[in-house]
Amino acid sequence: EALLAPSGPLAGRHVLVTSGPTHEPIDPVRYLANRSSGRQGHAIAAAAAEAGARVTLVSGPVSIADPAGAAVVRIETAEEMKAAVLAALPADIAVFAAAVADWRPQATHGSKMKKGADGPPTLALTENPDILATVGRLGEGRPRLVVGFAAETDDLIANGRAKLARKRADAIVANDVSAETGVMGGPANTVHILTADGVEDWPTLSKAEVGRRLVAWLAARLEAAG
Ligand code: CTP
Ligand code: CA
């Protein structure tokens, strides 16, 4: 069987995708995490591979299968995700779909914390690095297209716009993650693509379809940019 050179709209391109949650250890048996299945990020990685790209997927702990055709780098914490992302550059396109824990415990206990007469412990937290903003603000080595997500329960478009500017992203995929939408962990997504040019409202689609449509949209933008 002959190996075929990749073909498709992203042939010859490197696409970097983050996906899943991060786990921030409290002690050897406990962690802080976000509610994320990895389904949307993994679907984007699969679609990019289908489009002929070389794909690096940096993923937090998830229970779903690796997408076909992607090189998967497994990490647990936000600090590890940031290091893996920077190590994977250069890339033509970077899509940040991971639900990164905003905070981590200031100190990780080496041994299991025990219940005691003192009552519940207080968790002191410290802020994690913003991986998307770090890459969006890179001078040399910045991917041509840097895309983030905005997971919001309120003021979706306004908050998405603020993230577009703050993180120097080329696009923000804004989605409503209120519990009643069933987006977190569910099969479907309703997204709005925010750019400097305005807002595109996409219909409710499967996460696989959002992945394919986003990849087609990115390939067209990359092509247009020359
Ligand atoms: N993100 C990141 N690193 C972080 C936090 C977020 O790379 N430490 C990325 C996410 O992958 C996503 C985008 O930034 O692409 C927006 O994430 P979101 O949680 O919606 O925004 P935050 O900036 O963390 O703000 P907040 O949670 O307060 O709304
Ligand atoms: Ca956040």
From TrEMBL:
Question: Cofactor note, please?
Answer: Binds 1 FMN per subunit.
Cellular component per GO, a single term: phosphopantothenoylcysteine decarboxylase complex
Q: Does the keyword Translocase apply?
A: no
Q: Per the record, what are the reactions this protein catalyses?
A: N-[(R)-4-phosphopantothenoyl]-L-cysteine + H(+) = (R)-4'-phosphopantetheine + CO2; (R)-4'-phosphopantothenate + L-cysteine + CTP = N-[(R)-4-phosphopantothenoyl]-L-cysteine + CMP + diphosphate + H(+)
Among the GO molecular function terms of this UniProt record, one is: metal ion binding
Q: Which GO terms describe its biological process?
A: coenzyme A biosynthetic process; pantothenate catabolic process
Q: Record-annotated residues binding CTP?
A: 102, 112, 129-132, 149, 163, 167
Q: Where is this region: Phosphopantothenate--cysteine ligase?
A: 15-226
Which pathway is recorded for this entry? Answer: Cofactor biosynthesis; coenzyme A biosynthesis; CoA from (R)-pantothenate: step 2/5; Cofactor biosynthesis; coenzyme A biosynthesis; CoA from (R)-pantothenate: step 3/5
Its Enzyme Commission number(s) read 4.1.1.36, 6.3.2.5
Q: Which UniProt keywords apply?
A: ATP-binding, Decarboxylase, Flavoprotein, FMN, Ligase, Lyase, Magnesium, Metal-binding, Multifunctional enzyme, Nucleotide-binding
Look up the domain of life of the source.
Bacteria
Query: Which cofactor is essential here?
Result: Mg(2+); FMN
The entry's function note states: Catalyzes two steps in the biosynthesis of coenzyme A. In the first step cysteine is conjugated to 4'-phosphopantothenate to form 4-phosphopantothenoylcysteine, in the latter compound is decarboxylated to form 4'-phosphopantotheine.
* Family the UniProt entry places it in: In the N-terminal section; belongs to the HFCD (homo-oligomeric flavin containing Cys decarboxylase) superfamily.
**Name of the protein described by the UniProt record:** Coenzyme A biosynthesis bifunctional protein CoaBC
Origin species, per record, is: Prosthecomicrobium pneumaticum
Q: Which part of the complete sequence is present? A: 179 to 404 of 404
